From TrEMBL:
Name of this protein: Glycosyltransferase family 4 protein
CDD domains in UniProt: GT4_PimA-like
Domain Glycosyltransferase subfamily 4-like N-terminal positions: 15-174
InterPro entries named in the record: Glyco_trans_1, Glyco_trans_4-like_N, Glycosyltransferase_grp1
The Glycosyl transferase family domain, residue ranges: 189-339
Native source species: Teichococcus aerophilus
Pfam families: Glyco_transf_4, Glycos_transf_1
Length: 380
């Protein structure tokens, strides 16, 4: 018999946290399942992360510009009936129409992953989206990587707790290691590093303004920003306006950032909205202290010793979080070591893989007409 076919629907299959997580998952299990992906915006850069031995195909979206919602739902339903996947896997709000269309095909098991909210909902969820998720996901299994999302799913969305699964993101800890000697020589400036898409919700201007404050206080440092995105031009302009041209380096997109983390002394995150950012996990696994805004689960992700450096969404607060780390190499080593230990205890990717695999296998094993009964046989 053929391996079960999983249909993954993403708003985009460009390189991002959810897409990279899927690539790692399918690579881990190889030929255990067959995969098809629909990228609703047509972008498929994350295909480069899929191993050659995995049965993984890209399918065109059945949707056409200008279709009404009822017409879109009928197109999706026809697509699902023709493909006949064993499991539908959707990702985030951008794929919610597929969850809605699946309600017309109730025998098809459905697994929805929700990784967070876009910048438009950074100050609160839209009521229309709350109600839509409440209705569209009522008979689905839902995976969330953060406790904030867990509270949303069982609270505002009113989904049954037995159908919502908290699976923290995990990391291949062997790929991210502390450098052998984290001490910084007296003649060297400590390096503050960040890895982020250059998008508005990452609020890198906040980090640049905090850096300007630190420079005015006479502190020496360099700031390295890894990532690319639409905000690069205004960020360049802000660097010039703040007089930070000699302190700031934009390194662009780095396919494998593990080596870059070893060049950092401090990791900074300045986002307005996050859930469980991979960059924080990577920094922890690399033995770095972290200065961050209190976005998503960051305050509970880092070690207890590092938690005081997770601060409100404010330029001055972020500068004050960074200042003692710049001034004290021993403090950096202590917090970085505690973060590495926390990563080893809580965020190993194999545990994440196995949790996802059990949910997928349970969905694929659900006989037609008995989806709900099978899926509710215990939680993962």
């Amino acid at each position: 018999m053929s391996a079960p076919l999983l249909l993954h629907v993403f708003p985009s299959f460009s390189v991002g946290g959810a897409q990279v997580r899927l690539a790692k998952l399918v690579n881990r299990f190889g030929q255990r399942w067959r995969h098809a992906v629909v990228a609703l915006d047509g972008r498929t850069e994350c295909l480069e992360r899929i191993d050659a031995g995995v049965d993984f195909n890209v399918l065109p979206s059945p949707l056409r510009p200008g279709q009404s919602l009822p017409s879109r739902l009928l197109s999706i339903q026809a697509f699902l009936r023709q493909l006949r996947p064993d499991l539908l896997v959707t990702s985030n709000w951008g794929s919610i129409e597929w969850a809605m269309a699946r309600l017309m095909t109730p025998s098809l098991p459905h697994l929805h992953t929700e990784d967070g909210f876009g910048p438009e909902e950074s100050q609160g969820q839209f009521r229309r989206r709350i109600l839509t998720r409440r209705a569209a996901l009522r008979w689905s299994e839902v995976v969330v990587p953060s406790k904030i999302l867990l509270r949303s799913a069982t609270g505002q969305w009113r989904l049954p707790a037995t159908q919502v699964h908290y699976i923290p993101n995990g990391l291949d800890l062997s790929q991210f290691q502390p450098r052998p000697d984290n001490a910084v020589g007296e003649s060297l400036d400590p390096v503050i590093g960040t890895v982020a898409a250059l998008r508005a919700e990452k609020n890198l201007p906040r980090l640049l303004r905090a850096a300007s404050m630190l420079r005015q206080q006479g502190l020496r440092f360099r700031l390295a920003i890894l990532g690319h995105g639409p905000e690069r031009e205004p960020l360049d302009a802000l660097v010039t306006a703040l007089g930070l041209g000699d302190r700031v380096t934009f390194a662009g997109h780095v396919a494998d950032p593990s080596a870059a983390y070893q060049g950092f002394d401090i990791f900074a995150l300045s986002s307005d909205t996050e859930q469980m950012p991979f960059s924080i996990l990577e920094a922890m696994a690399s033995g770095l202290p972290i200065a961050s805004t209190n976005a998503g689960d960051v305050a509970v992700m880092v070690s207890a010793a590092n938690a005081p450096h997770v601060v409100r969404h404010d330029d001055t607060a972020l500068a004050e979080s960074l200042r003692p780390l710049l001034m004290d190499a021993a403090l950096r080593r202590r917090l970085g070591g505690a973060n590495r230990i926390k990563a080893e205890q809580d965020y190993d990717q194999e545990a994440m893989f196995q949790h996802h695999a059990r949910l997928i296998e349970r969905g694929c094993a659900a006989p037609e007409g008995r989806v709900s009964a099978v899926w509710r046989q215990g939680s993962v």
